[in-house]
Each structure stands twice: as C-alpha cells, then as structure tokens.
Specification:
With 162 residues, this protein is mostly helical. It has three helices and three strands; from the N terminus they run H-E-E-E-H-H. It is rod-shaped.
Length: 162
C-alpha cells in the first residue's frame, strides 16, 4: 500500500513538472507577441506562471483545468491532447490559436470599420444634399432680393426723372 501511494505521489510530482514545463513553453511562445494582442484564453499563460493546481478532465470533458500563478490564482483550461504533444507541436498549436484568434479579431475590427465608413459616407451624402438644397434656397432668396432691389432702383430712377 505504501509503495502504491509513493508511486501515485511520484507520478503526480512528475505530472506537475511536465505541466510546469508545458506552461513555461506556452509562456515563452506568447512572449514573442505583443501582450495586448494575446487572445483572452491564452492570457493566463503570460508572465511565466507556475501550476498551482491541476484537475483532470471530468465526465466527457476534453480539457484539463489548471490553476496558474503564485500570488494571484488564475484558472484556465488546456486540451488533453496537449499533454501528448512534442514541444514543436505544442508551439505550433499555441501559435495557431494566437493567429486564428488574431485573424478573427482583425476581421471583426475590419467589419466594424467598414460599417463606420459606410455610416460616415451616408452622413456625408446627407450633408451634401442638405448643403445643395441650402445653396438653391440661398440662390432663390438672393435672386429675389436682387430683383426687388432692381425694381426699387428702377422705381426710384423713374420717380426722380419726373
């Protein structure tokens, strides 16, 4: 019984060491990218955290729950498959998540900007129409004033001739 317990403890220590190595590798991969662009689900790995707690997948889950950090504990999940991956595969998987999320957020930003540009163009067209209408009204009013002014001057000339 004692031997079995020792084996379990040794396996647990080994697993935590492997998880710490994996978290360190993920942290080093993410350190190459600007922190503000790191996807939310990978942010817990920033700053070389250590594994404080790990819970294996429960019924039907495909992810391991990790608690990272020393002072402030942050919970995150990692796919079980990551445990079986070689370092280069894990690095590739993390980069794939980063770039996939980055592409998604850039597409979202592009869509937002396209909508803002279309709104701005609509407002610009509306303002051009209003300005054109205001110029026409101004022209009509100015023409009316000139006509009245011309009539008054002719009338004033006509009465001074008499």
């Amino acid at each position: 019984m004692k031997r079995k317990t020792a084996e379990i403890v040794d396996a647990t220590i080994e697993l935590f060491a492997e998880l710490d190595k994996m978290v360190g590798l993920i942290s080093r991969v993410l350190a190459k990218f600007p922190a503000r662009t790191v996807p939310q689900r990978l942010k817990p790995f920033l700053g070389s955290p250590s594994v404080a707690f790990a819970r294996p997948p429960m019924n039907g889950e495909s992810e391991i729950l990790l608690e990272l950090g020393m002072m402030r504990k942050i919970q995150t999940r990692i796919p079980v498959e990551w445990l079986m991956m070689h370092q280069s595969e894990l690095t590739s998987a993390v980069r794939e998540i980063y770039w996939g999320d980055r592409e998604h957020s850039l597409r979202h930003e592009l869509t937002r900007l396209e909508k803002a540009i279309a709104d701005h163009n609509r407002q610009g067209a509306h303002h051009r129409d209003k300005a054109s209408q205001a110029r026409r009204e101004h022209g009509l009013i100015t023409a009316g004033i000139r006509r009245r002014s011309a009539r008054k001057s002719r009338a004033a000339e006509g009465s001074s001739d008499s």
